[in-house]
Design goal:
The complex is a heterodimer of chains A (about 550) and B (about 300). Chain A has about 550 residues and is an alpha/beta fold. Chain A contains 18 helices and 21 strands. The relative contact order of chain B is 0.13. Classes of the chains: A alpha/beta (about 550), B mainly alpha (about 300).
Chain lengths: ~550, ~300
């Protein structure tokens, strides 16, 4: 064999090796390219999806080019759908242009759009849709190719209300802050802005009915704890039978705002209980005090606290229009007279007179303690919390919201005890009412539905101080001290009774508050007789 | 009718129409409503009997009036306002007008004192409330400074002190008006009278009583009339400071009328009855004072 032949053999061998190497590398790189192309492909699709829809023509061109490249590389792209929408947020009556770009699979494609607002589906590729109500919507498109392969994609459209909702309530301070936090969740979910306004009891009690009777309402939603007042306003309200599922709430919370025709005029929101006297654990332990289990022990406790250096009075008395005094008084009514006595007084003179011996005995006991100076003069109730925490007072009768008050320095040092021997606790439900003349009735109904639901109530109870009325709120949502209050009022031996003045309402309520203020500062037998006589007359007038 | 009468009458027609629509008609309707119940049935003096005889905040609590303890009834409380507030405003108004007459910086002082008239009564009420507060109030602060801290208390919480302290606390709100009217009146007294008195050897006190006071008669009538009308319809200060409490101890007729009319459920019969009583009292006083004014 000649030298030339040997050289040719070497050249051919080298060429063969090169071809093998090149082929192998080609396979490797093409595979890598496809893999990277898968990642890059997904990223590219995502980028197209998130791009401004005004560049949809460009996006479509890119997708077209990708299809060509895939065809060239003999790669079968999976059926994918990319949606774009413009605009994706705006005020009600928002006109949105949707665009669906399908790639891969086997054309032709069919499309089915669901706009998430209970309107019929649309089979156009690029539909235009108008959203007429404020909310956050997830518009979804389903694409089907000729092989019946399907792909799904969605886009979020946020429709805000042209006007924000207006909500009135009695809440201020930390209560209001907590409520605003919960409202923030509602706005985020629905796009509906909400403005909250805090009112005094007098302003709400008198101002709102005046507006409603004039055929006008500034508020879209009013939150109030007075079922009797709500029922009196029924002709000016929208019923909530179609908005809430009444089986989700304790029967007595619904019955309190339901009329004889089973029309429900308010939705229960949160429940506050008036469990008993709050005290500082450290104050009690430092002074060797123990929680009383009987009324005599309670009186002894007052005497002991009163004698402690630095204490002004054993019991703090709160004041605004008078409800803190009425809460304390109702604790005495139920503690010394039983929960049924409270219920009878709520029913009115047909069931129980205010001048009856049993009622007078209860008030006589209270007057005795007032006359002995164990209770402070009524002062603004939140400033009294500050003084209570500064150990100017030993105990303070207040509702379950005590745990949320910013004046409480350390909640872990706070505890309570029920009125010794009581079989009843006053509970007050904050109700949501919808004025008929609300400026934004549809959005207002959405807000009521949300607030009455478990999600909103779970947020509120998680912020502390209150209990949910919706039975789907889990026990685990409660903070430890609130759970303790809930356990206390949920005992079989404790009956949750309506707040007396809230339940009776009307002019009786303000008369009750005012007369208790008088009794507090002038606790004499003759004043007591006068007070009970006035309350009896007021209850009789209310009933007639 | 002559042309000289017809033309002015013609121009008065719009004013009469407005008066008829916004004053006379509501007045007549108010008086009518005071004689009917919620259903529009005629009840005679039933609403008046109710507002005077009710056990719940009657206009006159005869039992407590006899005992001399508060609450005595809204009408009696209004009389207290007149009896205490009026003489104090007249006295301090005249005193300040005389003292600040020819004093350097007197006009500035008068402007400061007049601020009480300028600020809304609701704001004035808030200020009064703070003045009387147990812990933050300057009244109790002054008592503590002068060694009478044992008397520092919640003045508006007790039935026997609530009304009196609100009345005293609001004297400064109206004194500015009296002072300004008297200041203007003083400027109108001829200087020759004082010169003649000086020549005759009259003392300052005699000059004041024999010249200044008689010459300020019309100013006094103006001050008394306007102050009286203000006291009869006082509402804002009571609403803010005490809300008519405790137990109605600082109740006044305008507040009672407001509660009856606007607190749910409204009772327009009793509200208009109170309004009618208040109107009769106001008209009576005003007519007497205007008569005195025209005679003087």
């Amino acid at each position: 064999m000649s030298a030339n032949n040997k050289m040719m053999d070497w050249i051919l061998a080298i060429l063969l090796i090169v071809v093998i190497i090149v082929s192998g590398l080609s396979v490797y790189y093409s595979t890598t390219t496809v893999t990277k192309m898968d990642d890059n492909y997904a990223d590219l699709l995502e980028a197209i999806r998130n791009s401004n829809a005004s560049s949809s023509i460009f996006s479509e061109a890119i997708l077209k080019a990708l299809e060509e490249i895939a065809l060239g590389l003999n790669i079968t792209l999976p059926l994918t759908i990319i949606t774009q929408a413009s605009p994706t947020q705006g005020e009600v009556n928002l006109t949105v242009s949707f665009r669906a770009m399908a790639i891969g699979g086997t054309p032709p494609y069919t499309y089915e759009w669901d706009f998430d607002d209970q309107t019929p589906t649309n089979n156009e590729r690029d539909p235009i849709h108008v959203y007429t109500n404020a909310s956050t919507y997830t518009a979804t498109v389903l694409v089907t190719d000729s092989e019946q392969e399907t792909a799904l994609d969605s886009v979020t459209i946020r429709v805000t209300s042209a006007e924000a909702l207006t909500v009135f309530s009695l809440w201020g301070g930390s209560e209001e802050e907590n409520f605003l936090q919960a409202l923030g969740n509602f706005t985020e979910d629905t796009g509906i802005e909400v403005n909250h306004y805090s009112y005094t009891t007098q302003e709400l009690l008198i101002g709102v009915p005046m507006q409603l009777r004039a055929g006008y309402s500034i508020a879209d939603v009013v939150i109030a704890p007075w079922p009797a007042w709500i029922l009196e306003l029924a002709p000016y309200l929208t019923s909530v039978n179609d908005i809430i599922n009444s089986t989700k709430y304790p029967a007595n919370t619904i019955n309190a705002v339901k009329d004889a025709n089973d029309v429900i005029w308010a939705a229960p929101f949160k429940l506050s209980g008036k469990p008993g006297f709050w005290y500082k654990k450290s104050f009690f332990s430092d002074n060797g005090l123990t929680v009383p289990t009987t009324y005599d022990e309670f009186k002894t406790l007052l005497v002991t606290i009163q004698g402690i250096a630095g204490i002004e009075q054993a019991v703090a008395s709160g004041d605004t229009v008078g409800w803190p005094l009425s809460d304390t008084t109702e604790a005495f009514i139920m503690g010394l007279g039983g929960y049924q006595l409270q219920e009878e007084l709520i029913t009115g003179p047909s069931a129980r007179n205010w001048t009856d011996t049993e009622v007078r005995n209860v008030f006589g006991n209270l007057t005795e303690l007032l006359a002995a100076g164990y209770f402070s003069a009524p002062a603004e109730w939140t400033s009294q919390i500050t003084k209570f925490w500064d150990e100017k007072y030993g105990i303070y009768f207040m509702g379950s919201w005590m745990t949320t008050m910013e004046q409480i320095g350390d909640v872990s040092d706070l505890d309570f005890f029920g009125f010794p021997g009581t079989d009843g606790v006053a509970g007050s439900v904050d109700y949501l009412i919808l004025p008929k003349d609300a400026p934004n009735p549809n959005e207002a109904a959405q807000l009521v539905e949300w607030l009455a639901g478990a999600e909103a109530q779970e947020i509120m109870v998680g912020l502390g101080g209150f209990f949910g009325t919706n039975i789907d709120v889990p026990d685990t949502a409660y903070l430890p001290l609130d759970k303790k209050v809930l356990d206390f009022i949920s005992q079989a031996t404790i009956h949750i009774v309506s707040d007396l003045d809230d339940a009776v309402g009307g002019k009786f309520q303000t008369t009750f508050w005012d007369q208790l203020k008088l009794l507090w500062v002038d606790p004499t037998p003759s004043t007591l007789d006068d007070v009970l006589a006035v309350l009896e007359a007021a209850a009789l007038e209310q009933q007639t | 009718m002559s042309h000289h009468i017809k033309t002015p009458l013609f121009f008065l027609i719009p004013a009469f129409l407005l008066l008829a629509l916004f004053v006379f008609y509501p007045m007549v309707d108010t008086i009518y409503m005071s004689f009917v119940d919620q259903d529009g049935n005629f009840v005679g003096l039933g609403n008046y009997e109710k507002v005077f005889g009710t056990r719940i905040y009657p206009l006159v609590n005869t039992k407590n009036v006899a005992l001399g303890k508060f609450p005595m009834g809204a009408l009696v409380h209004n009389i207290f306002w007149i009896a205490i507030h009026l003489p104090l405003c007249v006295f301090f108004g005249l005193l300040l007008a005389v003292l600040l007459r020819d004093v350097k910086g007197g006009s500035i002082m008068k402007s400061v004192i007049f601020l009480g008239m300028v600020i809304p009564l609701i704001v004035g009420g808030v200020l009064v409330r703070f003045i009387l507060d147990r812990d933050a109030g300057i009244l109790n602060g002054i008592l503590r400074v002068i060694g009478l801290g044992a008397y520092a208390t919640d003045w508006t919480f007790y039935p026997n002190t609530a009304l009196i302290t609100v009345i005293l606390g609001s004297v400064w709100l109206w004194t500015g008006f009296a002072m300004i009217v008297y200041s203007a009146g003083l400027e109108g007294i001829p200087v020759e009278l004082y010169e003649a008195a000086k020549i005759d050897g009259a003392s300052r006190w005699k000059t004041f009583w024999r010249i200044t006071v008689p010459m300020l008669r019309s100013s006094t009538i103006t001050v008394v009339t306007m102050t009286l009308l203000w006291e009869l319809k006082i509402f804002d200060v009571i609403y803010i400071v005490t809300n008519a409490g405790p137990g109605g101890a600082s109740d006044v007729m305008a507040f009672r009328m407001y509660i009856e009319a606007f607190q749910y459920p409204p009772n327009y019969g009793t509200a208009t009855a109170i309004a009618t009583v208040l109107t009769i009292m106001t008209f009576g006083f005003a007519a007497y004072m205007v008569n005195r004014m025209t005679k003087s």
